[in-house]
Amino acid sequence: MADVKDLSAHEPAFDRIREVRDQAIHHARLAQQFAAERRELMQDLIDQGVTRADIARELGVTRQAIQKMLAC
C-alpha cells in the first residue's frame, strides 16, 4: 500500500490553486464570448461595405490580424 502524505498544512495553497483555476476558466469563457462579439461586429461592417483594410487601419492592426479574428 502506498504511503499517503498529510498535505493539510498546504491546504491554503491548494485552495488558492483551485480559485485561480476557476478564475482562469471564467476568463477563458469571457474571452470566447468577446471574440464572438468582435467577429459579429466586424462581419456586420464588412456586410455594409467596409473593407478589411479599413477595419485594420481603424483598429491599428494588420489585415492579416483581421483575417485571424474573423476565422476564430
Summary tags:
Homeodomain-like domain-containing protein, mainly alpha, 0% strand, 72 residues, rod-shaped
Secondary-structure element series:
HHH
Give helix % range.
Answer: over 70%
For the termini, the CA-CA separation is 49 Å
**Structural class based on helices, strands and sheet pairing:** mainly alpha
Tally of helical segments: 3
Number of DSSP-assigned strands: 0
Largest sheet: none
Radius of gyration: 22 Å
Mean pLDDT: 96
What overall form do the CA principal axes indicate? rod-shaped
Query: What amount of the residues lies in strands?
Result: under 5%
The parts where pLDDT drops under 50 for at least 5 residues are none
Organism: Actinacidiphila acidipaludis
Protein name: Homeodomain-like domain-containing protein
